[in-house]
Amino acid sequence: VSFRVQYPHNSENISREDRREFKQTRYAVGDVLIDAASVLGGEVALKILYMKLVEAAQSCRNDETWDWRPSEASLYCIRAISSYVSVVEAEVMPQVMMLLPKLPLQPQLLQTVCLTIGAYSKWLDASPNGLPVLPSVIEILMSGMSASEDSAAAAALAFRHICDDCRQKLCGSLDGLFHIYHRAVSGEGGNKVSAEESLYLVEALSMVITELPPENAKKALEALCLPVVAPLQELINQGPTQLQKALARELTIHVDRLGNIFRYVNHPEAVADAVHRLWPIFKAMFDHRAWDMRTMEALCRACKYAVKTSGKFMGITIGAMLEEIQGLYQQHHQPCFLYLSSEVIKIFGSDPSCANYLRSLIEALFSHTTHLLTKIEDFTARPDIADDCFLLASRCIRYCPHLFVASAVFPSLVDCAMIGITIQH
């Protein structure tokens, strides 16, 4: 069936409708192959498909006459059955992986090569034959990141899968991984990884750093944050006016990367220390961009991940963070301030040492919110605030009822809930 997934001649010139139909055909053939692999077994199906790949690759010539389409089609089929191939398969997969670096760097073929590498990341980790080929497949991914936007997206995703599944094997190769990461984040060297897909590389390095011992992880985390923080610091150094004039995307692209670092580096103390060092940058954005919903959502999301990862280690910074959002919420009514507060309550609600500033937070946030939601129309006009307000209330009831129920604002919040309870939302 591989001929059915083969790209047509001059595929770049086919109509949008034909392209959509071709994609649907490929998906359908993939489903058929999955069914076949479930009946025959992944190894048997792999052998059959590999013979087609060898046949196509033998005609490979590094000139314009070579047709890349049969090789791409065979690899597409091999990728489709990846879930049914044993992670310790030792006969065919080593040959597939050794063949990949020999294929020409044609963009569409390279995209499928990268996706195939990502699909077999668990094999690369578990198989004794996986470790020797890791350097060559990572080299392929680096080529993919520079070939085209589509191949760059595929390579970034595959890189994430490999770093996730092979993280222990890659701990000793951090210098090389950081080189790839810096190229992607900075856009140097003709790198075509988009801002969105660069998050895959952030996650990838974060997962590998998680496997390091704490003393090494702290240094690696600093290195991971450095190229992300530098543009933010540069913008802040230009003064409040420039910070306020900046487009939201100029900030969120970097803040989202920090958020993913805090989310995936599972070293609570190191992350808490990083947040403490970065707090002046965060505070500057809170102070001068509180009116900007997109920036605040990204910033609160990053803080949320930091709180979830660091837990009680965030004690040094959490007071300043809560004081900041408590004051800003009353001016700008950003729903994300409520959501971030609910995460803080979840972690610190039962901590007696935090009782005073949590009590103050609860009073301030709910007192102001109940004045925003005084009639049914307010709930319709501000659905995000209503949602996040009562999420926060549910967290307070669960994690610090002794503070919440006894607060002066509790009766008015119950009245507010009675107004909104009739709304289907």
UniProtKB/TrEMBL annotation:
Superkingdom: Eukaryota
Record carries keyword NAD: no
Biological process annotations from GO: protein import into nucleus
Cell cycle keyword on record: no
GO cellular component term, pick one: nucleus
Major place of residence: nucleus
Designated name of the protein: Transportin MOS14
Naturally occurring in which organism (per UniProt): Papaver nudicaule
